[in-house]
Design brief:
Length: about 110
């Protein structure tokens, strides 16, 4: 975590923090099994969620790791994954806006 992140998370009671309960990937997998959707920019988490068959949205930088291919919003690796890519290097706001829009659609 970056400096200040923990204080920001703790200041928002609507955020349920599970990071203090995670010791290894087994703990992470157990938590994932109870979730309807995992949203992550961490590819280790994305790969675990995909391997478990969980619905996962992966936020990717403009130049992603080769495993995520290019110019597609799905992946051959995990049929339950949707990829949200930066269209311009460093522009996360457009990615977050798109994710937010898709979340609004899900919540009806």
């Amino acid at each position: 975590m970056r400096e200040g992140d923990e204080a920001t998370l703790d200041a928002n009671p609507q955020i349920v923090r599970l990071d203090r309960d995670v010791d290894d990937f087994a703990d992470t997998a157990a938590i994932m099994m109870s979730l309807d959707l995992i949203i992550t920019s961490d590819t280790a988490v994305a790969n675990l969620a995909g391997a478990l068959g969980r619905k996962v949205w992966v936020l990717l930088p403009f130049i992603p790791d080769w495993r995520w291919s290019l110019d597609r919003d799905d992946t051959l690796w995990y049929p339950t994954a949707t990829l949200f890519r930066q269209q311009r290097s460093g522009d996360w706001s457009a990615v977050v806006d798109r994710v937010f829009g898709e979340l609004k659609k899900l919540s009806g």
